[in-house]
Amino acid sequence: MKQVPYVASAREISKIYGSGDTAVEALRSVTLEVAAGEFVAVMGPSGSGKSTLMNCMAGLDAISSGEVTIANQNLDFTNDRQLTELRREQVGFVFQSSNLVPTLNITENIELPFLLAGRRPSAEERAWGHQLQRMLGLEQRAHHRPAELSGGQRQRVAIARALVTRPAVVFADEPTGSLDSGSSREVLELLRQMTDTLAQSIVMVTHNPSAASYADRIIVIVDGRVTHQLSGAGAEEISGLMLTLEESR
Ligand SMILES: Nc1ncnc2c1ncn2[C@@H]1O[C@H](COP(=O)(O)OP(=O)(O)OP(=O)(O)O)[C@@H](O)[C@H]1O
């Protein structure tokens, strides 16, 4: 097995949907290497390939060429069992909709990844789940069901569920896309805190320049290629760049 110093990486990956006249080249030789404890935002116009990149890096969608690693392992897209195990053990997901199970309480929703793996959480894993609830301000809500929470609180549960298995990397696709600005800020501050205090690596797809400004690094994808990389950029600088890109299309 090849050893690489990144928690997740895509090297010169391409992704072609379909074939012949209807083929769509969604990614063209994209490289993204995510270091331990790094928070990366992926931006770009609609249809530029952001979700495709995330899905390929998370082992949800097969690449057409190149190489993807998670936790030092090359993903073998012909091996469903390896992909499922790697995703279960090393990847956390947060989506725009928190996708909680309505009949389970908050603690049970957070422990869901263990149940889906066909086992009960260990005492240490349970304790970690409780600690995450405290860190995310959910300790008073342990026995509530998702319907009794606000959108921002539900998204915090989704973050705790993504982190409970101590994954190498969390992929977040528009995690604040359906939240109001106050709840968005809260969720982004918590994601930032997870990187700063737990060295949790995060890759977040977003359209929103203020959301992206919480990241250490921003990569911009246009027509399936990485065209820009920014480090420590503020919302205004990011907005300016996105505006220029929209105008030049
Ligand atoms: N399953 C699919 N089959 C065929 N084409 C696809 C498929 N998924 C995505 N595409 C195409 O690949 C390109 C990139 O799509 P992708 O969803 O990755 O873009 P995106 O940047 O995430 O867009 P958005 O910001 O609108 O969510 C688009 O042209 C899209 O139409």
Summarize the topology.
Elements: E1 8-17, E2 24-34, E3 39-43, H1 50-57, E4 65-70, E5 73-74, H2 80-90, E6 91-94, H3 106-110, H4 112-116, H5 123-135, H6 151-163, E7 169-173, H7 181-198, E8 201-205, H8 209-212, E9 217-222, E10 225-231, H9 235-247
The protein binds adenosine-5'-triphosphate.
Protein name: ABC transporter ATP-binding protein
GO cellular component, one term: plasma membrane
InterPro entries: AAA+_ATPase, ABC_transporter-like_ATP-bd, ABC_transporter-like_CS, ABC_transpr_LolD-like, MacB-like_ATP-bd, P-loop_NTPase
How would you describe this protein?
- The protein has a domain at 8-100 and 167-247: P-loop containing nucleotide triphosphate hydrolases (Rossmann fold), CATH 3.40.50.
- The protein contains nine helices and ten strands.
- The protein has helices at residues 50-57, 80-90, 106-110, 112-116, 123-135, 151-163, 181-198, 209-212, 235-247; strands at residues 8-17, 24-34, 39-43, 65-70, 73-74, 91-94, 169-173, 201-205, 217-222, 225-231.
- The strands form two sheets. It has a six-stranded mixed sheet, sandwiched between helices.
- Helix 7 links the parallel strand 7 (169-173) and strand 8.
- It binds adenosine-5'-triphosphate.
- Residues 17-18, 24, 26, 44, 46-52 line the site of adenosine-5'-triphosphate.
- Adenosine-5'-triphosphate binds next to strand 2 and helix 1.
Main sheet attributes: strand count, strand direction, barrel closure: 6 strands, mixed
Number of strands: 10
The sequence of SSEs as H and E is: EEEHEEHEHHHHEHEHEEH
Would you identify the CATH architecture of one domain?
3-Layer(aba) Sandwich
Helix tally equals 9
End-to-end distance? 42 Å
Low-confidence regions: none
Task: Output the structural class.
Answer: alpha/beta
What are the distinct ligands in this entry?
A: adenosine-5'-triphosphate
Assembly category: single chain
Mean pLDDT: 94
What is the percent of helical residues? 25-40%
What fraction of residues sit in β-strands? 15-25%
